[in-house]
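Could someone model magnesium ion with this protein?
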Amino acid sequence: MARKLVISISGKGGTGKTTLTALLLKWLIQNTDEISLVVDADPATNLDDVLGVKLTRTVGQVSKDMKDQIEKGTLPPTTPKKDLLEAWVFQTLVEEERFDLLAMGRSEGEGCYCFVNNVLTHILDTLTKNYGVILMDMEAGLEHLSRRTDRDVDAMLVVTDPSRMGFETARRIKDLAEEVHIDVKKIYLVGNNFPQDMTDTLKKAADDIGVELAGSVPYDENVMSFNITGKPLLGIPDDSPAYRAVEHIAQKIGLSNLS
Ligand SMILES: Nc1ncnc2c1ncn2[C@@H]1O[C@H](COP(=O)(O)OP(=O)(O)O)[C@@H](O)[C@H]1O
Ligand SMILES: [Mg+2]
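Reply:
Sure, complex below.
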């Protein structure tokens, strides 16, 4: 099975990227037969909590182990480093019935360690081929664009809350995506926490930025209480306003064309 759809979710910090990722996953689980790969590309790593799964290690941690062991010369001489790192990355995958979670974590020990970076890029390209849908919960801000983490995506969803900085970040993400020539098929704006009577403002903002509005997720007490009590967001009732809005977003961005 080849991958069919890659979706990245970006925007200013705290705008609702992780919430939207979790609710889109819920939609995919309930409405398609696809097995999704969910990538937590935010170094703060909290998607595992929101999905209620047990993560033990991140890609950043095993990459650091690899760098350290290369420097110390403590790797077994018989196994190629590339195969070893690949095995370690695969071990970090959290495997659930309908999705797998890969957490990138922090890339510790800065400076270009080209071997590790090249192998990682190769591993991710190979890994992502095994899934019908890839959902990427990006880090806040713009950095992911210069690192090209979300090159080659079908839909880039940029989330904004009703704040000037939210819109400004969305605009800069859109401009930068064009500047760095990453291969994004379509960029959408998604509003979160907007009052109903501000839908027009949101539409105008999308027009002004030059992207299509995928939808608007209202403030939802269920989302809030699931967050506070630490319940996995996948279990939120189907009639929750936020989930209802995500159903529309899923249609709008073409997820309903999946099997
Ligand atoms: N529509 C919503 N209704 C209620 N609470 C929300 C909503 N969207 C986000 N939140 C809450 O706001 C906080 C930040 O959301 P989150 O998705 O973690 O943002 P980000 O991933 O962009 O940093 C979380 O506590 C989340 O539960
Ligand atoms: Mg987040």
